[in-house]
Design goal:
- InterPro entries: DUF8044 (IPR058357).
- Keywords: Membrane, Transmembrane, Transmembrane helix.
- Pfam families: DUF8044.
- This protein is mostly helical.
- The chain has one domain.
- It is built from 4 helices and no strands.
- Helix 1 runs antiparallel to helix 2 and helix 2 runs antiparallel to helix 4.
- It is flat, with a radius of gyration of 16 Å.
- The mean pLDDT is about 90.
Length: about 90
């Protein structure tokens, strides 16, 4: 059964992602890439704001892998955007 802190973490991340969808929709900028980036930023913020001071539960140690996968996805998006901006023949 999920602990209270884990449930609070999940609720915070879910609220952030719903707010991201609503905010990007209202701005007319909803795309999968932007949603991913905004959700990743929110995930990193929620991870830091809910971090315990003394003892780290086992489930929080698994978040490191999610952060690494998210940062790899972010790097992929950045590389794609940079390659799209560069003129032909530069690379």
């Amino acid at each position: 059964m999920a602990t209270r802190r884990r449930q609070r973490f999940i609720y915070a991340q879910t609220a952030w992602m719903v707010a991201a969808v609503v905010g990007l929709s209202l701005l007319g900028a909803l795309s999968l890439e932007l949603f991913f980036v905004v959700s990743l930023i929110g995930f990193l913020i929620v991870v830091e704001l809910t971090a315990p001071f003394s003892v780290t539960p086992e489930w929080r140690s698994r978040l490191r892998w999610i952060v690494l996968i998210g940062l790899a996805g972010f790097a992929y998006i950045v590389v794609r955007r940079v390659l799209a901006i560069l003129p032909e023949g530069v690379l």
